[in-house]
Amino acid sequence: MMQEQIYAQAIDTIRARRRAAQEQQEQRTDRIRQEIPETAELERQLRSVCMDIARLIGSGQCAEQIRAIEQQSSEADAMLRTLLTAHGYPADYLDLHYTCPLCSDTGFVNGKPCTCLEQEIGRISAEELNQHSRLALSSFETFSMQYYKKLPEEQYQAMEQNLCFCRQYAASFSPSVQNNILMLGNTGLGKTHLSLAVASVLLQNGFSVIYDSAGSMLHRLEQEHFGKRDGSDTLELLLSCDLLILDDFGTEFDTSFTRSMIYTIINSRINAGKPMIINTNLTSGEIKERYGDRILSRLLFASKILHFYGKDIRIQKRAQQNRS
Ligand SMILES: [Zn+2]
Q1: Do 140 and 167 contact (CB within 8 A), yes or no?
Q2: Is the model's pTM score more than 0.70?
Q3: Fold for domain 133-323?
Q4: How many angstroms is it from 115 CA to the middle of ligand 1?
Q5: Which of 72, 82, 166, 321 is the most buried (most CB within 10 A)?
Q6: Each residue of 80-112: pLDDT tens digit?
Q7: Spans of all domains in the chain
């Protein structure tokens, strides 16, 4: 499932919660109307008071009149609550009970994704990654040091330290502490494996993690930007999630649009103090050549650099299978 579908599914779930909350309130209201008929009159009063207030505000009436009507409204509301408790119901029985009181199950607060939406995206993403077994297979436990055994001592130790660093990073992660990792090295040396292992731990701990390859992330942003897709705001999610993992940085299609997006994402997250893990096969010289000195120096300055060494693990595995 693509990130866009995950986002759409998360929004659907949250809208369904809102509908359910409204339906449950209607059912409670019906029940109370039958059991306590006096409530119907109070409800009618409350509704007409609301309409009066709206009309007065619209016609620019003086504040005093509005206050008087508001007073009526709170009296009717208090009487309704008293009636409910007198009949053995909680005072807020007829209120709407949303799953998330922050956003009333809309998924957004002041136009920004609510924490409940981010959590839902995190949950679906985790499920999704698990389905593809990548996350399940890419745990710290399954990161095998045996593929690095033939390396010179110094490089073997560096790989061991990478593993150790990522474990600690995941265990002590805080979304408000700028703590970026820049993983440098050729394809097939375990960069994605360790990134997913971090993602797996964080998702289990309830953080929102977005993991995607730079190519597919930028492709989606481009389609949204040029109006070929709508209904989602990928950039907003990329900027707001607790951890952004940008895999295969440098393999995306190189256009002025992708360069400026990369610049926006990296700069905004560094400025906001939000952590990232960036994996790339490019050397620091190639990053500089492609994205410019500013991005490179910002990245180098703000990140822990992990160098990956070795021979492509996929090739090693294939050779092993052929031998056995
Ligand atoms: Zn919410």
Answers
A1: yes
A2: no
A3: Rossmann fold (3.40.50)
A4: 6
A5: 166
A6: 999 999 999 999 999 999 999 999 999 999 989
A7: 3-86, 133-323
